[in-house]
Amino acid sequence: MCIGFVPKEFLNTDAQGQVMTAYTATVTVRLKQGVLDPEAETTRQALDRLGFELESLRSADQFEIDLDAESASNAEERAGEMAERLLANPTIHDYTVAIEER
Amino acid sequence: MCIGFVPKEFLNTDAQGQVMTAYTATVTVRLKQGVLDPEAETTRQALDRLGFELESLRSADQFEIDLDAESASNAEERAGEMAERLLANPTIHDYTVAIEER
Fold first, then answer.
1. What is the ipTM of this complex?
2. Could you report the per-residue pLDDT of B33-42, keeping only the tens digit for each?
3. How many angstroms separate the CA atoms of A65 and A67, rounded?
4. Where do the domains of chain B lie, and which CATH numbers do they carry?
5. Contacting A residues, span 9-38, partner chain B, CB-CB under 8 Å
6. Residue B86 is nearest to which of A47, A58, A85, comparing CB atoms?
């Protein structure tokens, strides 16, 4: 049997002897400064009516992503790409990525 | 001019000699283990279709609350009450509170 050339993309990274580590990437997506957040304002007013004293309230979406990667920086890079492509809208959102081992 | 009795509620806490510190309380509200999260599942599938490799994805709501308090523990207690009363639904949610000085 002839085993021909196998493009690198079709090899499992594990099969290349790469040790994969399990990480959790936490992507926090916030509205940019100056973008109106009527939902947060409604929540602030509701807390105010319940008698709580607070200066201001901002809301954010958080995504906890479990992924396997060769290194923390690789995991961070991939989570950043996920934010750019899907999780955040760069016109109105800022995002931060935090990485920790699982 | 007669200055009569001023009920305590109308006095600014600062005026009582209490030193107030500015804190930011971050309340993170997550679905309890076992509660279905179709939105997160849809997001995971969309990332999968875009070619990202990930094990799982969980979503959470985060509230950043600016408040003045006598101490970090007082700020934490008040933010916890806000979570109990309004921000989280104890039937389906868990929450965590993190405090830092502004």
1. 0.79
2. 999 999 999 9
3. 6
4. 18-101 (3.30.1280.10)
5. 22, 28
6. A47
